[in-house]
Amino acid sequence: MNLFLEPLQYPFFVRGLYATLFIGVLCSVVGTFVVVRGMAFFGDALAHSIMPGLAIGYLVGGSQRSSLFWWGIAAAIVSALGISSIQQKTKFSEDTAIGIVFAGMFALGIAIISSTPNYPVDLNHLLFGDVLGISKQDLIRTGIFSVLIVLIILIFFRIFVLISFDRTLALTLRLPLKFYDTLLLIFIAISIIVSLQTVGVAMMVAMLITPVATALLFTHRVMRVMIYGSFLACLSGIMGLYISHHINIASGASIVLTATILFFGGWLLKMVKK
Amino acid sequence: MWKNRTNDQHVHSSEVPFLQVEQLSHSFGENLALDQLQFTIQKGEVIGLVGPNGAGKSTLLQLLAGILPVQQGKILFYGTEPNKHLCIGYIPQRPSIRWNFPITVNEMVMMGRVRKIPFFRLPTSKDWSIVRQALETVQLESFASKPIDALSGGQLQRLFLARALAQEAELLLLDEPLNHLDQSSRKLFLQTLQQIHSSGTTIILALHDLIIASKYCNRVMVLNQRIFAFGTPKQVLSDTTFYQAYPTHFSSFQAFHASLLLDDSCHSLEDSDDEPVS
């Protein structure tokens, strides 16, 4: 029992738990569309293409996390809009558009970092995640963004499902496809920034994909995928944090590994059931 | 965007022509796909659109559906552009849906009603009842809670019809719907179309099978960039202009046989119980 209660006496641990719950739900709701639309590459690329935002954010505001956050969001939205524009206005496929923008933005980030002497090691927590280092202010911001994005997605749920499933029907029903596509890309971008502190840039895509993929093993209804995925992501977050605390490994890695183990566990269970 | 979400944007008056096409031309780059088409279709007709590959059948259907923008000429559906209406159902030749999408049969049919359900409301019992009726019409009610990837090709085609029914489509545009269907699936599909037509829906279907076109359509349009012939199957298939549109021997041979099968009055979808011949 002490194993469960002992970490709760540390405020940073409790804040970390709350953050993983918010992010678990957010990533699963947004990640459902990432998975069903086959946009895993987009999620991964976007997480990397915020590099110039983080670099500029640091130059402007030092290691202040709010500065990194807002510049990160700006870079993510620029990347999302760039990908969306290239895709809509040229004949290139989505992955080509992603490749162009992602590589360009990442290179810009590296260029800024390399031109700045003694660039901070503080960026480590954004690259590899540090959910236990989350401040009260960060937590409030994470909570507000998570609730807002989940609410908006639920309001437009039927539309997002339709444009993800059958674009021809969406056109005959006169839905503004470009508007909703761009809105969804921006939501994915913001979710990635909001969640970065949990698992970091390097493992971000796992938070968007793995719990949703596990949920998809057990249901064929979008809403249930979101619900099961949220539950699994929250479970991974909580278990990952406890494991990280007790065996002293990086919290982000611990959460992602837990989610991965749950996926393989679910897969095994499904195969046994068959 | 929030305005008129629950209704079609335009009143459907019986005083204006149902579908009127005037001087319609369309190009893809320098390639002319359709040249100066002009025709009128009355409510309740079944129109067979025939022509060789690349004749512009799909382009015409996409223009009528309001998916492609009109470059030159006019399309008036109840007196206004098709893209102002929500009651045009379109089933493409190769539906661009994600087949492994986590969605059930009845959820897919409910998608046809997306614009009829406001953002802040769940589907009502009336919506579900319409979905159920649509599935009954296409004989897929027993699959309602199954994932869509559990359906066969023929069942999927009927599922698209069910969705158009849930959409309450007044004009149904079908692009070669019988491709890849076996004999029994074709029969069931055509029977379902018969039922949909009998409820007053106007149907335009692109076909390669001239015999089915001649047996099941009120009028047949022979298209190859321009309209070569448009009239009752008997008029069209016995018209020498038909052979200009269809240069291949096989098609001419099939058309000849189709014309032999025709009696004085054409079969309508309502009164035809014959098994389609292919």
Q: What spatial order of strands do you see in the largest sheet of chain B?
A: 5-6-7-3-8-9
Q: What is the largest interface, and how many residues per chain?
A: A-B, 28 and 32 residues
Shape of chain A: globular
Return the string of H and E elements of chain B: EEEHEEHHHEHEHEEHHH
Q: What's the number of extended β-strand segments of chain A?
A: 0
Order of helices and strands of chain A: HHHHHHHHHHHHH
Unreliable parts of chain B: 1-7, 263-278
- Which topology of chain A does CATH recognise? ABC transporter involved in vitamin B12 uptake, BtuC
CATH superfamily of chain B: P-loop containing nucleotide triphosphate hydrolases
CATH architecture of chain B: 3-Layer(aba) Sandwich
Describe this structure in words.
The complex is a heterodimer of chains A (274) and B (278). By secondary structure, chain A is mainly α. Chain A has one domain (2-268): ABC transporter involved in vitamin B12 uptake, BtuC. Helix content of chain A is 82%, strand content 0%. Chain A has helices spanning 2-5, 11-36, 40-49, 51-61, 65-89, 94-114, 124-128, 136-155, 157-165, 167-172, 177-216, 222-247, 251-273. The model of chain A has no long low-confidence stretch (mean pLDDT 88). Chain B is α/β, with parallel strands linked by helices and 278 residues long. Chain B has one domain: Rossmann fold (3-Layer(aba) Sandwich), CATH 3.40.50.300. Helix content of chain B is 32%, strand content 21%. Chain B contains 9 helices and 9 strands. Chain B has helices at residues 57-65, 105-110, 125-137, 153-166, 183-198, 210-216, 233-237, 240-245, 249-261, and strands spanning 19-28, 31-41, 46-50, 72-77, 88-91, 171-175, 202-207, 219-224, 226-231. In chain B, the strands form 2 sheets. Chain B has a 6-stranded mixed β-sheet with strand order 5-6-7-3-8-9, sandwiched between helices. Chain B has a 3-stranded antiparallel β-sheet with strand order 2-1-4, with helices on one face. In chain B, helix 3 (125-137) packs across helix 4 (153-166) and helix 6 (210-216) runs parallel beside helix 9 (249-261). The longest helix of chain B has 16 residues, at 183-198. Chain B starts with 18 loop residues before the first strand and ends in a 17-residue tail after the last helix. The relative contact order of chain B is 0.16. The model of chain B is unreliable at 1-7 and 263-278 (pLDDT under 50).
